[in-house]
Amino acid sequence: MSFFTMRWSDDGVLLLDQRALPDQAPVLCLRNAEEVARAIEDMVVRGAPAIGVTAAMGVAIELANANDADVPAALERAVKRLAATRPTAVNLTWALERVQSELSQALRAGTSPSQVREQAKQLAQQMHDEDVQVCQAIGDAGGPLLPDAARVLTHCNAGALATAGYGTALGVIRSAARDGRLKHVLASETRPFLQGARLTAWELQQDAIPVQLVTDSMCGALMRQGEIDAVVVGADRIAANGDVANKIGTYSLAVLAERHGIPFYVAAPLSTVDLRTPNGDSIPIEQRSSDEVVKLRGQRIAPEGVQARHPAFDVTPAELITAIITEKGVARAPFEQALAAQFER
Ligand code: MRU
Fold this sequence. Notes:
- By secondary structure, the protein is α/β, with parallel strands linked by helices.
- The protein is 41% helix and 18% strand.
- The strands form four sheets. It has a seven-stranded mixed β-sheet, sandwiched between helices. The chain has a four-stranded mixed β-sheet with strand order 11-8-9-14, with helices on one face. The chain has a three-stranded antiparallel β-sheet with strand order 1-2-3, with helices on one face.
- A hairpin with a 2-residue loop joins strand 15 (323-326) and strand 16.
- Helix 2 runs antiparallel to helix 5 (113-142) and helix 5 (113-142) packs across helix 6.
- The mean pLDDT is 98.
- The structure holds 5-S-methyl-1-O-phosphono-5-thio-D-ribulose.
């Protein structure tokens, strides 16, 4: 891969600034947890697994700056601030709970502050590396579900840019492409933030995977014309019953896919599955600024003063989902049992 999404350095957390893609690919260096939290809120880095790994690095940089006596307080402060950045993706909570639990345990056991700082760095790096491996396993589990010469629609960006590398939905696509079974990807532009147009199209181009960009409104017509063999998307949170929160517009695609008899796959790590959330109605949906709707990359496209709505995610009910692909394999309905079984494996 010719780029990285996030990387640890002793100066700070390095993030590819995704707001500038595809025109430029600058790298920012964030030197404390507050800067990392703002970068997550401002979408410098986005995508459920990516913000989880970045938050773990944000804790590590806060501890690296803290003097010995302040290490326990710095841990609490960093976890609290980072957890408040984005509400829908449960990978953020998952990552921060893991970091807090392991480091608090070390502190309670009398581990020295300098060792805890080192442990925080190593844990963040380990979570990064595990995420890449998990994505490759998701790709290898999902790739074989696609037919030969597959034309696959994906929404938003669930690729290397949304993870530590390889991607979830794009992981499935990468594995199918590697195995010679992909004709092309259709990337929906994903209004209003344009993750499909700006990020997925760029990422696939970098890997020379054939991609055609479509507007969100073209997908129904293309399905009707028989031009889409499968839909593969990522997820921000999967409830215990299999309901899936993902980027706004995902639900509409699932309804259209069902109407046209097209398989609808969700690819996500088990860290996205939240057994504490019983169903989609209990998933908090982030409401982002209406500015992102009335402006396109900073340029106003609607009348001054007009009101706009911006729910950033929607919920697709489990009954519209053909299968959920995780690093443990392919889960099918009834999802409640299938997902629980994957945790036991
Ligand atoms: O608002 P974003 O860009 O963070 O939303 C990202 C998505 O909805 C992705 O599809 C999801 O996080 C899966 S990423 C592997």
